[in-house]
Amino acid sequence: xTRDFAPLPPTDEEIAQISLETLGCFxxxxxxxxxxAWSRAVGFESERGPMVIRFSATADDFRAxxxxxxxxxxxxxxxxxxxxxxxGDRYWCISQRMPGIHLDDxxxxxxxxxxxxxxxxxxxxxxxxxxxxxxxxxxDTNGNGRFASFAGQLLEVGVDNPGERGGGxxxxxxxxxxxxxxxxxxxxxxxxxxTFAPDVRQLIHQDTINFxxxxxxxxxxxxxxxxxxxxxxxxxDLAWFRFWNPWYTxxxxxxxxxxxxxxxxxxxxxxxxRMHCYLLHIGIGHIRYNAFTENWSAMTDVVHATxxxxxxxxx
Length: 315
Hints:
By secondary structure, this protein is an alpha+beta fold. The protein contains 10 helices and 12 strands. The chain has helices spanning about 10-25, 60-70, 110-125, 150-155, 170-175, 175-195, 235-245, 255-265, 270-295, 295-315; strands at about 30, 40-45, 50-55, 80-85, 90-95, 100, 135-140, 145, 200-205, 215, 220-225, 230. A 5-stranded antiparallel β-sheet has the order 1-2-3-5-4, with helices on both faces. A 4-stranded antiparallel β-sheet has the order 8-7-12-9. It has a 3-stranded antiparallel β-sheet with strand order 6-10-11, covered by helices on one side. Helix 7 packs antiparallel against helix 8, helix 7 packs across helix 9 and helix 9 (about 270-295) packs antiparallel against helix 10.
Protein backbone atom coordinates (compact mmCIF):
# COMPACT_ATOMS: atom_id res chain seq x y z
CA UNK A 1 0.00 0.00 0.00
CA THR A 2 1.27 3.48 -0.91
CA ARG A 3 2.19 5.61 2.09
CA ASP A 4 -0.06 8.62 2.71
CA PHE A 5 1.46 11.78 4.19
CA ALA A 6 -1.61 14.01 4.22
CA PRO A 7 -3.14 14.78 7.65
CA LEU A 8 -6.61 13.76 8.73
CA PRO A 9 -9.45 15.60 6.93
CA PRO A 10 -10.66 18.78 8.66
CA THR A 11 -14.04 18.87 10.33
CA ASP A 12 -16.80 21.27 9.27
CA GLU A 13 -16.38 23.01 12.60
CA GLU A 14 -12.66 23.60 11.99
CA ILE A 15 -13.38 24.97 8.52
CA ALA A 16 -16.06 27.30 9.91
CA GLN A 17 -13.72 28.56 12.64
CA ILE A 18 -10.91 29.34 10.21
CA SER A 19 -13.22 30.90 7.60
CA LEU A 20 -14.82 33.21 10.15
CA GLU A 21 -11.45 34.33 11.51
CA THR A 22 -9.77 34.71 8.09
CA LEU A 23 -12.55 35.78 5.73
CA GLY A 24 -15.07 37.16 8.18
CA CYS A 25 -17.86 34.97 6.82
CA PHE A 26 -19.40 31.55 7.35
CA UNK A 27 -18.64 28.75 4.84
CA UNK A 28 -21.45 27.00 2.97
CA UNK A 29 -21.57 24.14 0.50
CA UNK A 30 -18.55 22.40 2.01
CA UNK A 31 -17.32 19.62 -0.29
CA UNK A 32 -14.28 17.34 -0.32
CA UNK A 33 -11.90 17.97 -3.22
CA UNK A 34 -9.12 15.91 -4.73
CA UNK A 35 -6.25 15.87 -2.24
CA UNK A 36 -2.51 15.72 -2.87
CA ALA A 37 0.22 13.55 -1.43
CA TRP A 38 0.89 16.07 1.36
CA SER A 39 -2.42 17.84 1.93
CA ARG A 40 -6.20 17.48 2.22
CA ALA A 41 -8.37 19.90 0.24
CA VAL A 42 -11.94 21.06 0.87
CA GLY A 43 -13.95 23.51 -1.18
CA PHE A 44 -16.64 25.84 0.10
CA GLU A 45 -18.69 28.86 -0.87
CA SER A 46 -18.42 32.19 0.93
CA GLU A 47 -19.61 35.76 0.65
CA ARG A 48 -16.20 36.50 -0.92
CA GLY A 49 -16.54 33.81 -3.57
CA PRO A 50 -15.54 30.14 -3.98
CA MET A 51 -12.68 29.09 -1.71
CA VAL A 52 -10.49 26.09 -1.05
CA ILE A 53 -8.90 25.25 2.28
CA ARG A 54 -6.02 22.80 2.52
CA PHE A 55 -4.50 21.10 5.55
CA SER A 56 -0.92 19.81 5.65
CA ALA A 57 1.76 18.78 8.12
CA THR A 58 3.97 21.54 6.69
CA ALA A 59 3.36 25.11 5.56
CA ASP A 60 6.15 25.11 2.96
CA ASP A 61 3.93 24.54 -0.08
CA PHE A 62 1.40 27.11 1.16
CA ARG A 63 4.14 29.74 1.44
CA ALA A 64 5.21 28.94 -2.11
CA UNK A 65 1.63 29.47 -3.30
CA UNK A 66 1.56 32.82 -1.52
CA UNK A 67 4.82 33.86 -3.20
CA UNK A 68 3.66 32.70 -6.63
CA UNK A 69 0.46 34.75 -6.42
CA UNK A 70 2.48 37.91 -7.13
CA UNK A 71 3.07 36.62 -10.66
CA UNK A 72 -0.64 36.31 -11.46
CA UNK A 73 -1.87 37.80 -14.73
CA UNK A 74 -4.64 37.28 -17.26
CA UNK A 75 -2.55 34.56 -18.94
CA UNK A 76 -1.23 33.17 -15.66
CA UNK A 77 -4.28 32.75 -13.39
CA UNK A 78 -2.67 31.98 -10.03
CA UNK A 79 -5.14 32.00 -7.12
CA UNK A 80 -4.91 34.58 -4.37
CA UNK A 81 -3.98 33.26 -0.92
CA UNK A 82 -6.14 34.78 1.83
CA UNK A 83 -4.53 33.24 4.88
CA UNK A 84 -2.09 30.68 6.25
CA UNK A 85 -2.08 29.47 9.81
CA UNK A 86 -1.80 26.55 12.22
CA UNK A 87 -4.41 24.49 14.01
CA GLY A 88 -2.83 22.07 16.45
CA ASP A 89 -0.13 20.14 14.61
CA ARG A 90 -1.58 20.95 11.18
CA TYR A 91 -1.13 23.94 8.92
CA TRP A 92 -3.95 25.38 6.83
CA CYS A 93 -4.23 27.66 3.83
CA ILE A 94 -7.30 29.38 2.41
CA SER A 95 -7.10 30.46 -1.21
CA GLN A 96 -9.28 31.40 -4.12
CA ARG A 97 -10.89 28.38 -5.79
CA MET A 98 -10.34 28.47 -9.54
CA PRO A 99 -13.20 27.43 -11.85
CA GLY A 100 -13.29 24.63 -14.39
CA ILE A 101 -12.14 21.05 -14.73
CA HIS A 102 -8.62 19.66 -14.48
CA LEU A 103 -6.43 19.75 -17.56
CA ASP A 104 -5.74 16.05 -16.93
CA ASP A 105 -9.41 15.21 -17.51
CA UNK A 106 -9.67 16.72 -21.01
CA UNK A 107 -10.09 14.50 -24.04
CA UNK A 108 -8.07 15.01 -27.23
CA UNK A 109 -10.46 17.62 -28.65
CA UNK A 110 -10.47 19.50 -25.36
CA UNK A 111 -6.68 19.61 -25.38
CA UNK A 112 -6.63 20.91 -28.96
CA UNK A 113 -9.02 23.70 -27.96
CA UNK A 114 -6.99 24.74 -24.91
CA UNK A 115 -3.55 24.63 -26.57
CA UNK A 116 -3.48 28.37 -27.46
CA UNK A 117 -4.29 29.29 -23.85
CA UNK A 118 -1.86 26.70 -22.48
CA UNK A 119 0.80 28.15 -24.78
CA UNK A 120 0.12 31.65 -23.45
CA UNK A 121 0.37 30.36 -19.87
CA UNK A 122 3.74 28.69 -20.46
CA UNK A 123 5.11 31.74 -22.26
CA UNK A 124 3.90 33.98 -19.43
CA UNK A 125 5.69 31.82 -16.87
CA UNK A 126 8.86 31.94 -18.94
CA UNK A 127 8.65 35.74 -19.16
CA UNK A 128 8.06 36.37 -15.44
CA UNK A 129 10.63 38.77 -14.03
CA UNK A 130 13.03 37.21 -11.53
CA UNK A 131 14.64 40.57 -10.76
CA UNK A 132 13.58 40.68 -7.10
CA UNK A 133 15.07 37.27 -6.33
CA UNK A 134 18.35 35.42 -6.69
CA UNK A 135 19.58 31.85 -6.99
CA UNK A 136 18.43 28.79 -8.90
CA UNK A 137 16.21 25.81 -8.20
CA UNK A 138 13.60 25.40 -5.49
CA UNK A 139 12.52 28.43 -3.48
CA ASP A 140 13.32 29.42 0.07
CA THR A 141 10.79 31.34 2.19
CA ASN A 142 11.55 34.55 0.28
CA GLY A 143 11.26 33.04 -3.19
CA ASN A 144 15.03 32.89 -3.74
CA GLY A 145 16.61 29.82 -5.33
CA ARG A 146 18.51 27.55 -2.96
CA PHE A 147 21.31 26.75 -5.41
CA ALA A 148 24.13 28.68 -7.07
CA SER A 149 23.34 27.10 -10.44
CA PHE A 150 20.49 25.24 -12.12
CA ALA A 151 22.83 22.29 -12.61
CA GLY A 152 23.27 22.17 -8.84
CA GLN A 153 19.51 21.83 -8.35
CA LEU A 154 19.30 19.06 -10.93
CA LEU A 155 22.13 17.01 -9.43
CA GLU A 156 20.58 17.23 -5.97
CA VAL A 157 18.11 14.56 -7.12
CA GLY A 158 20.77 11.93 -6.37
CA VAL A 159 21.22 13.01 -2.75
CA ASP A 160 19.17 11.42 0.03
CA ASN A 161 18.62 13.70 3.03
CA PRO A 162 16.78 11.48 5.56
CA GLY A 163 15.99 14.39 7.86
CA GLU A 164 14.12 16.35 5.18
CA ARG A 165 10.66 15.90 3.69
CA GLY A 166 10.84 13.08 1.16
CA GLY A 167 14.13 11.83 2.57
CA GLY A 168 14.97 8.22 3.38
CA UNK A 169 14.15 6.89 -0.10
CA UNK A 170 17.53 5.33 -0.91
CA UNK A 171 17.16 2.38 1.45
CA UNK A 172 13.83 1.47 -0.13
CA UNK A 173 15.25 1.83 -3.62
CA UNK A 174 18.11 -0.55 -2.86
CA UNK A 175 15.53 -3.32 -2.40
CA UNK A 176 14.63 -3.07 -6.11
CA UNK A 177 17.68 -3.96 -8.16
CA UNK A 178 16.36 -3.07 -11.63
CA UNK A 179 15.02 0.29 -10.50
CA UNK A 180 18.32 1.00 -8.73
CA UNK A 181 20.28 0.17 -11.90
CA UNK A 182 18.15 2.54 -14.02
CA UNK A 183 18.48 5.22 -11.35
CA UNK A 184 22.27 4.85 -11.31
CA UNK A 185 22.52 4.88 -15.11
CA UNK A 186 20.27 7.93 -15.19
CA UNK A 187 22.45 9.77 -12.70
CA UNK A 188 25.55 8.97 -14.74
CA UNK A 189 23.98 10.45 -17.88
CA UNK A 190 22.54 13.37 -15.96
CA UNK A 191 26.01 14.37 -14.72
CA UNK A 192 27.11 14.67 -18.34
CA UNK A 193 24.00 16.46 -19.61
CA UNK A 194 23.78 19.12 -16.88
CA THR A 195 26.73 20.83 -18.54
CA PHE A 196 24.22 21.95 -21.19
CA ALA A 197 21.77 23.43 -18.63
CA PRO A 198 21.93 27.22 -19.03
CA ASP A 199 22.01 29.49 -16.00
CA VAL A 200 18.83 31.33 -16.95
CA ARG A 201 16.37 32.26 -14.21
CA GLN A 202 12.94 31.54 -15.62
CA LEU A 203 9.86 30.42 -13.69
CA ILE A 204 9.26 26.66 -13.62
CA HIS A 205 6.13 25.15 -12.07
CA GLN A 206 7.38 21.54 -12.23
CA ASP A 207 3.98 19.94 -11.60
CA THR A 208 1.63 21.13 -14.34
CA ILE A 209 0.22 17.71 -15.23
CA ASN A 210 -0.87 16.48 -11.83
CA PHE A 211 -4.33 17.99 -11.36
CA UNK A 212 -2.83 21.43 -10.71
CA UNK A 213 -4.22 23.23 -13.77
CA UNK A 214 -7.89 23.95 -14.46
CA UNK A 215 -9.68 24.76 -17.71
CA UNK A 216 -12.94 26.62 -18.28
CA UNK A 217 -14.51 27.53 -21.64
CA UNK A 218 -11.48 26.34 -23.56
CA UNK A 219 -8.99 28.47 -21.61
CA UNK A 220 -6.66 27.96 -18.67
CA UNK A 221 -8.58 29.15 -15.62
CA UNK A 222 -6.13 28.30 -12.83
CA UNK A 223 -2.64 27.06 -12.05
CA UNK A 224 -1.86 26.26 -8.43
CA UNK A 225 0.20 24.11 -6.04
CA UNK A 226 3.56 25.85 -6.44
CA UNK A 227 5.40 23.72 -3.88
CA UNK A 228 7.77 22.37 -6.56
CA UNK A 229 8.42 25.77 -8.21
CA UNK A 230 11.99 26.53 -9.32
CA UNK A 231 14.10 29.19 -11.01
CA UNK A 232 15.86 27.75 -14.03
CA UNK A 233 15.39 26.79 -17.66
CA UNK A 234 11.71 26.97 -18.66
CA UNK A 235 12.25 24.15 -21.15
CA UNK A 236 11.83 21.94 -18.07
CA ASP A 237 8.06 22.47 -18.07
CA LEU A 238 7.89 21.42 -21.72
CA ALA A 239 9.88 18.30 -20.80
CA TRP A 240 7.26 17.64 -18.12
CA PHE A 241 4.54 17.35 -20.77
CA ARG A 242 6.75 15.09 -22.89
CA PHE A 243 7.72 12.73 -20.06
CA TRP A 244 4.20 12.19 -18.76
CA ASN A 245 2.44 12.13 -22.15
CA PRO A 246 2.32 8.29 -22.38
CA TRP A 247 0.18 8.23 -19.23
CA TYR A 248 -2.56 10.22 -21.05
CA THR A 249 -3.69 7.76 -23.68
CA UNK A 250 -6.71 9.92 -24.50
CA UNK A 251 -4.30 12.46 -26.05
CA UNK A 252 -2.44 9.93 -28.19
CA UNK A 253 -3.87 11.23 -31.48
CA UNK A 254 -2.86 14.85 -30.77
CA UNK A 255 0.91 14.69 -29.96
CA UNK A 256 0.75 17.36 -27.28
CA UNK A 257 4.54 17.55 -26.64
CA UNK A 258 5.41 18.36 -30.25
CA UNK A 259 2.61 20.90 -30.56
CA UNK A 260 3.54 22.68 -27.33
CA UNK A 261 7.23 22.85 -28.20
CA UNK A 262 6.34 24.33 -31.59
CA UNK A 263 3.77 26.81 -30.25
CA UNK A 264 5.61 27.90 -27.09
CA UNK A 265 8.98 27.91 -28.84
CA UNK A 266 12.27 26.58 -27.50
CA UNK A 267 14.81 29.26 -26.64
CA UNK A 268 18.58 28.86 -26.46
CA UNK A 269 21.16 26.42 -27.77
CA UNK A 270 21.54 22.67 -27.26
CA UNK A 271 17.78 22.10 -27.01
CA UNK A 272 18.15 18.36 -27.70
CA UNK A 273 20.63 17.80 -24.88
CA ARG A 274 18.69 20.00 -22.47
CA MET A 275 15.44 18.18 -23.19
CA HIS A 276 17.05 14.81 -22.47
CA CYS A 277 18.63 16.24 -19.33
CA TYR A 278 15.28 17.34 -17.96
CA LEU A 279 13.48 14.17 -19.05
CA LEU A 280 16.08 12.18 -17.11
CA HIS A 281 15.73 14.41 -14.07
CA ILE A 282 11.96 13.93 -14.06
CA GLY A 283 12.33 10.17 -14.32
CA ILE A 284 15.04 9.88 -11.67
CA GLY A 285 13.11 12.18 -9.36
CA HIS A 286 10.01 10.03 -9.58
CA ILE A 287 11.88 6.78 -9.15
CA ARG A 288 13.09 8.16 -5.83
CA TYR A 289 9.67 9.63 -4.98
CA ASN A 290 7.88 6.32 -5.58
CA ALA A 291 10.54 4.51 -3.58
CA PHE A 292 9.86 6.96 -0.74
CA THR A 293 6.07 6.49 -0.93
CA GLU A 294 6.50 2.74 -1.55
CA ASN A 295 4.32 2.93 -4.65
CA TRP A 296 5.95 0.03 -6.48
CA SER A 297 3.42 -0.12 -9.32
CA ALA A 298 3.95 3.54 -10.20
CA MET A 299 7.70 3.13 -9.85
CA THR A 300 7.69 0.29 -12.39
CA ASP A 301 6.05 2.57 -14.97
CA VAL A 302 8.48 5.42 -14.26
CA VAL A 303 11.47 3.08 -14.45
CA HIS A 304 10.29 1.93 -17.89
CA ALA A 305 9.88 5.53 -19.10
CA THR A 306 13.29 6.53 -17.72
CA UNK A 307 14.94 3.54 -19.37
CA UNK A 308 13.36 4.65 -22.67
CA UNK A 309 14.95 8.09 -22.27
CA UNK A 310 18.33 6.47 -21.60
CA UNK A 311 18.03 4.34 -24.73
CA UNK A 312 17.20 7.43 -26.78
CA UNK A 313 20.32 9.16 -25.44
CA UNK A 314 22.50 6.18 -26.33
CA UNK A 315 21.03 5.78 -29.84
